[in-house]
From TrEMBL:
Keyword annotations from UniProtKB, A to Z: ATP-binding, Nucleotide-binding, Transport
Species of provenance: Niallia nealsonii
Protein's name in the database: ABC transporter
Keyword NAD found: no
Positions of transmembrane segments: none
PANTHER family from the UniProt entry: SPERMIDINE/PUTRESCINE IMPORT ATP-BINDING PROTEIN POTA, SPERMIDINE_PUTRESCINE IMPORT ATP-BINDING PROTEIN POTA
Domain ABC transporter: 1-211
InterPro entries in the record: AAA+_ATPase, ABC_SmlMolc_Importer, ABC_transporter-like_ATP-bd, ABC_transporter-like_CS, P-loop_NTPase
Domain of life of the organism encoding this protein: Bacteria
Cited SUPFAM superfamilies: P-loop containing nucleoside triphosphate hydrolases (SSF52540)
Length: 212
């Protein structure tokens, strides 16, 4: 169970959101600059709210006036908008970083279709390929929660479909919350149990799609 009730002042508005989610796929949907990435960063521990509470499975990541739990202790898998691959490591080493099992790695490498890229460095591969590597790396850590910031935006339709299927399979297998940002409403409907519509830091609509 993920419980969030946070406020954070930004230059032009205040993020003020409350969420309680079981192990669902939750889509954060909203215009550019509405606070989606900032919310993911607060869950990951890269940024802090000004006040509130962030809890995952009885573990308090953040609470007003208390020392927040460090990012390394949160067991968060995060795919960043800019993919954030380590430039000096090959694709293989990037995925192995924080990896839990070789078997899972082999499976992920195959399902996102990057077997042929393992010995290459990030600067030698395309944007869509980087995105697939970043997705495999986020999943390979077997996290307690998965945060995905536009994880499929640079992929072609065929690869997207395969990655959707793999994400749904892993979600079923691991039963963890997945919080995902996308600007693609069709994608949101295909993958999300819930869609949270954000505008200037506030939740303006909550859609329940699939049971969860
Ligand atoms: N480091 C920062 N310092 C100051 N303001 C910031 C910073 N990061 C983001 N902002 C501002 O906070 C607001 C929310 O940004 P955020 O990146 O969370 O939005 P977003 O919904 O993820 O946008 P996008 O869909 O374009 O990625 C924006 O108005 C942005 O300009």
């Amino acid at each position: 169970m993920l419980a969030i009730k946070i406020k954070k002042n930004l230059p032009h508005f205040t993020i003020d959101v409350e969420l309680k989610e079981n192990n669902n796929i939750v889509i954060l949907f909203g215009p550019s600059g509405s606070g989606k990435t900032t919310i993911l960063n607060c869950i990951a521990g890269l940024d802090n709210p000004d006040e509130g509470l962030i809890q995952l499975n009885q573990k308090t990541f953040y609470q007003t006036n208390r020392k927040s739990v460090k990012i390394q202790q949160r067991k968060v898998g995060y795919l960043f908008q800019d993919f954030a691959l380590f430039p000096h490591m090959t694709v293989e080493k990037n995925i192995q970083y924080g990896m839990k099992s070789q078997e899972l790695m082999n499976r992920l490498v195959q399902s996102v279709g990057i077997e042929h890229l393992l010995k290459k460095y990030p600067k030698q591969i395309s944007g869509g390929e980087k995105q697939r590597v970043a997705l495999a790396r986020a999943l390979a850590t077997e996290p307690d929660i998965l945060l995905l910031d536009e994880p499929f935006s640079s992929l072609d339709q065929e690869t997207k479909k395969e990655c959707y299927a793999e994400l749904l399979r892993l979600h079923e297998m691991w039963d963890i919350p997945i919080i995902m940002v996308t600007h693609d409403y069709e994608e949101a409907k295909k993958l999300g149990n819930h869609i949270i519509h954000l505008k200037k830091g506030k939740i303006v609509n909550r859609e329940k799609l699939h049971a969860g």
